[in-house]
Amino acid sequence: MRRTAALLVVAVAGVSALVSCSSTGCSVSDAHTLRQMSLSYCYEVTPSEAPPHARADVLYKIVILDHKTQQPIQNGEGTLFASNGAGARTWDALTYGPEVGVYHAKLNYVIAGTWAVAIRFRRDSLAPLERTDWMQDVLNERPTQNP
Predict the structure, then answer these.
(1) Is 30 helix (H, G, I), strand (E, B) or coil?
(2) What is the pLDDT along the chain (147 residues), one digit of tens a residue?
């Protein structure tokens, strides 16, 4: 009985999270777009390839909106970074523009496997840094083609 009640609570919480995010206007424009949220921000993260391959540059387009007003955050500062269990790391500073509320970054995963990826972001130097995390599977390196 307790287990059923616990599963019901988890299911309701999951549905509530989906409904609350959709009611905030966080829209996903692409099948490869990942929607993430922190206390103050809504992030739409779109990689140039999904899932990424090891040793290939992956360009990320990150739309950042204010969680309450759904207005784009302009000229904020942040970092996209990742690490894996073997201690490999990669990171890049978020670059703003040219579209309003859109930031860009590039990661290069050096080996295949599961990576922990995160964004640290704040709207200005006076705001606290907020963080959102997710796990990313990285495929084996593509074979090199000889001419």
Answers:
(1) coil
(2) 444 444 443 333 343 333 334 444 454 456 789 999 999 999 999 999 999 999 999 999 999 999 999 999 999 999 999 999 999 999 999 999 999 999 999 999 999 999 999 999 999 999 999 999 999 999 999 988 666
The stretches of the chain forming alpha helices (DSSP H) are 2-23
- The pLDDT tens digits of the residues spanning 37-63 come to 999 999 999 999 999 999 999 999 999
Residues 132 and 138: their CA atoms lie apart, in Å, by 19
First to last CA, the chain: 65
- Return the structure tokens found at 15: 């549905």
Q: Does residue 4 sit within a domain?
A: no
Query: Is 133 among the domain residues?
Result: yes
**Which CATH number is 44's domain given?**
2.60.40.1930
User: Could you give the strand order of the β-sheet that contains 113-122, starting from the edge strand earlier in sequence?
Assistant: 89-93, 77-84, 113-122, 130-138
**pTM for this one?**
0.78
- Domains held by the chain: number: 1
CB-side exposure of 112: number of CA atoms within 13 Å? 6
Domain with 111 in it: 28-138
